[in-house]
Every structure is written in structure tokens, then in C-alpha cells.
């Protein structure tokens, strides 16, 4: 079975690459699309349904979403620039606070920075001052993979309803893809949703 891997791609690339991939297939061919974002999966499914293709199955496997699709006979020809209404769409309600963490410490002094970052999460819990979503990127992904004290705090924060994501590209860059211990892997779409759909974005680190 042929496979199209669109993990980690920002919208509208998953939809565009799906369209281009379909053009290389024969009618009746069955193929798999691999994604790592429910938003991207929803947009790709919307495009496939609009073009008359058959979605045979959808399975979540770890951080991946696997779509098995059969290319059907009829297809409405669309140009890349006409794909906007299939791309970057979200059911996300306007939320208050999006926090982006770009380092595993706060400030330039590493020893002090580790104390400060731990205090940041502890105070967040004690005072119940919680964001709606946190996105860990760059060296921030060490907090969701390596630092057991922070991981314990983040698990408590997650249980209170905070969405926690770690940058998939960053995890791969640091060789930490199989070491994520809290939250989910997130792509650029998760990051952009936070920046554009939340009322306030705060950078920490």
C-alpha cells in the first residue's frame, strides 16, 4: 500500500500534498495518509469527501492518525489556490491564554533558571492560574521528556484540563520522539492555532 506522510506540516500543506498524491494514483488504488494533528486530519477528510474519494478507515496509533483511502472515479479539479476553504480550519473556540515555552530554564543562568521554571509550574498549580494550552518547543521539549520533577507537575496541570503539546520537529531534532512523557506531539498547526485563535499569547524561557 502506498503511503503519504504529512506529519508536522503546517496547513495548507497536508491538503495540497494529498491532492498532488492523488493525481499520481489510478482509480481504485488504496493508500494511507499519515498525520499527527486532528485538525489536519479533519481538513484532509473534508477535501477527500468533497472530491468523492472513499475513506475506508481512520485509526489513531500513538501520536499518529492513519487514514486509509480509496481513490474513486469522479474528482472535481481544483487548483492549489482554491484549497483555502479546506485548509487551516478549526472548531477552536476563542480561548484566553496560550503559553509557549522555548527553553528548559527561565533566564540565562542555568542553575537559577531550573529553580525558576519549577517555581513557575508549582505556583501555577497552587494558585490555580492555568493557561488553556501550553506548547513546548526548542529546548522546552526537555521538560516534557527528561525532567521528572517537571513532568510530574505537568501531569497535574494536564489533569486540570490544560492542553499540553510538544513540538514534533523539536522532539525529532533532539532524538526524543519516543521519550514524550506528558501531553501530545504537536505540529505547526497547533502552534498557529494558539497564536491566532487565543486572546493572549505569552512566551516563557
What would your notes on this structure say?
Helix 4 links the parallel strand 6 and strand 7. The strands form 2 sheets. A 5-stranded parallel sheet has the order 8-7-6-5-9. A 4-stranded mixed sheet has the order 1-2-4-3, covered by helices on one side. The chain is built from 6 helices and 9 strands; from the N terminus they run E-H-E-H-E-E-E-H-E-H-E-H-E-H-E. It is α/β, with parallel strands linked by helices and 205 residues long. It is elongated and about 60 Å long. Helix 1 packs across helix 2 and helix 3 packs parallel to helix 4.
Short description:
By secondary structure, this protein is an alpha/beta fold. The protein has six helices and nine strands.
List the main descriptive attributes of the protein structure presented here:
4-stranded mixed beta sheet, 205 residues, 5-stranded parallel beta sheet, alpha/beta
List the helices and strands and how they pair.
Blueprint: E1 2-5, H1 13-22, E2 30-35, H2 38-50, E3 54-61, E4 64-70, E5 95-101, H3 110-126, E6 133-136, H4 148-159, E7 163-167, H5 168-173, E8 184-186, H6 188-197, E9 198-204
Parallel strand pairs: 1-2, 5-6, 5-9, 6-7, 7-8
Antiparallel strand pairs: 2-4, 3-4
Amino acid at each position: 500500500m502506498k503511503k503519504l506522510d504529512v506529519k508536522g506540516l503546517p496547513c495548507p500543506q497536508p491538503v495540497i500534498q494529498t491532492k498532488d498524491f492523488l493525481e499520481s494514483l489510478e482509480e481504485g488504488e488504496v493508500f494511507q495518509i499519515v498525520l499527527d494533528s486532528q485538525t489536519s486530519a479533519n481538513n484532509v477528510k473534508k477535501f477527500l469527501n468533497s472530491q468523492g474519494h472513499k475513506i475506508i478507515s481512520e485509526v489513531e496509533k500513538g501520536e499518529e492518525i492513519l487514514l486509509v483511502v480509496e481513490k474513486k472515479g469522479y474528482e472535481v479539479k481544483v487548483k492549489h489556490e482554491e484549497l483555502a476553504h479546506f485548509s487551516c480550519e478549526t472548531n477552536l473556540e476563542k480561548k484566553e491564554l496560550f503559553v509557549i515555552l522555548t527553553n528548559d530554564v527561565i533566564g540565562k543562568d542555568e542553575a537559577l533558571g531550573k529553580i525558576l521554571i519549577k517555581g513557575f509550574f508549582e505556583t501555577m498549580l497552587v494558585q490555580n492560574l492555568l493557561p488553556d494550552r501550553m506548547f513546548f518547543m526548542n529546548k522546552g521539549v526537555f521538560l516534557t521528556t527528561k525532567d521528572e520533577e517537571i513532568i510530574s507537575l505537568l501531569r497535574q496541570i494536564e489533569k486540570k484540563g490544560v492542553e499540553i503539546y510538544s513540538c514534533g520537529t523539536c522532539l525529532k531534532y533532539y532524538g526524543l520522539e519516543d521519550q514524550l512523557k506528558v501531553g501530545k506531539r504537536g505540529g505547526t498547526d497547533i502552534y498557529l492555532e494558539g497564536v491566532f485563535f487565543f486572546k493572549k499569547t505569552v512566551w516563557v524561557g
